[in-house]
């Protein structure tokens, strides 16, 4: 009964979804691509039997890329069906495709749409990345005998509370999963409370990602040409940049040294906010140089603030930075991934809100790869002090590299489990 009511709500919300896609598409044209696929209508033919991997957004797609590489090393003939929910995820996922692979939007979670999706693609098995468990999709896979797993699985305390409040809807969905491979023991315990059958604790796939060496070298080369230490606000979220600018303005008004004598680099989490963040800095009376305008050979241009307005260059930015503030952690947003920073040897200063990556954040702090502060004001002070103390900064950078190396191995464990899940496909 509860799922029937949920389905009616989801079906009734379809016009709102179309309206939202039109609005998002004005800033990100990728949202206007193949809109009918969102409702389970697919034009391109599909060959049955592919492994279906769903990676909703950019972060999940990057984790999926690590898994896909490990899978292809073990089974080069593997065919992939890759689905997404965001334009950035789909753009990143296109880089993973090989001959015989297919990419599509995952449909809106109505019974009709998900049934059309499964009937069209007829995947051998499905792997959902990290958090994406939808009630109608899970039920449709169960009825169609499509094994469905949750990989690199995580569940915050907040998400667990939401799932328990909606237990009659969430419990059957989680219980229908054939396998759940959790990132941490704490994630495994929370997932078990939803009804999921946790098959293993494999670690976080993102530890197995190797930074782009060319980008890292380029960033470090540009860093050597800078007279001042570079502080980066990595994957900053809406509201955080304005908060940083207020902190810096207050310091200037009080004639404090905080934030002066260093170069600021802002790298927003979402590309649709690049223009907004550049405008915020200019409105604060600061000169701005954007990555998209840097000459290829010369690199960063003189300005109060640099804005990293490019996708897929985080290794370059971490190579350029001496210390990074962790975006999403200074407002109650759960924090962004700090693993890539560690792998690049960039120390991190994080705020109090890291519930999306709680264990990784705690372990990074314990290892000396990250510092924890209570506020952005305190974070700026800590980052400036660390950036100006070369021996201490070098020690934290080395700790970050050691922390990243110590937690590798999830890709191999997950790939082996996925290949066991994929049954020989028969019509």
User: How would you name the CATH homologous superfamily of the largest domain?
Assistant: 3-Deoxy-D-manno-octulosonic-acid transferase, N-terminal domain
CATH architecture classification name of the largest domain:
3-Layer(aba) Sandwich
Termini gap: 32 Å
Task: Give the count of helical stretches.
Answer: 18
Rounded to the nearest angstrom, the radius of gyration is: 22 Å
Strand order of the largest sheet: 3-2-1-4-5-6-7
Do you know the CATH topology of the largest domain?
Rossmann fold
Structural class: alpha/beta
Give a quick account of the main beta sheet: strands, pairing sense, barrel closure: 7 strands, parallel
β-strand percent reads: 5-15%
What is the helical fraction, as a range of percent? Answer: 40-55%
Mean pLDDT: 93
- Total number of domains: 2
Low-confidence stretches: none
What are the SSEs and their pairings?
Blueprint: H1 2-12, H2 14-27, E1 51-54, H3 58-74, E2 80-84, H4 87-93, E3 102-105, H5 111-121, E4 125-129, H6 135-144, E5 148-153, H7 157-165, H8 167-175, E6 179-182, H9 185-193, E7 198-201, H10 213-224, E8 230-236, H11 240-253, E9 263-268, H12 274-283, E10 288-290, E11 305-307, H13 314-320, E12 323-326, H14 339-343, E13 348-350, H15 358-367, E14 370-372, H16 376-388, H17 390-406, H18 410-421
Parallel strand pairs: 1-2, 1-4, 2-3, 4-5, 5-6, 6-7, 8-9, 8-12, 9-11, 10-11, 12-13, 13-14
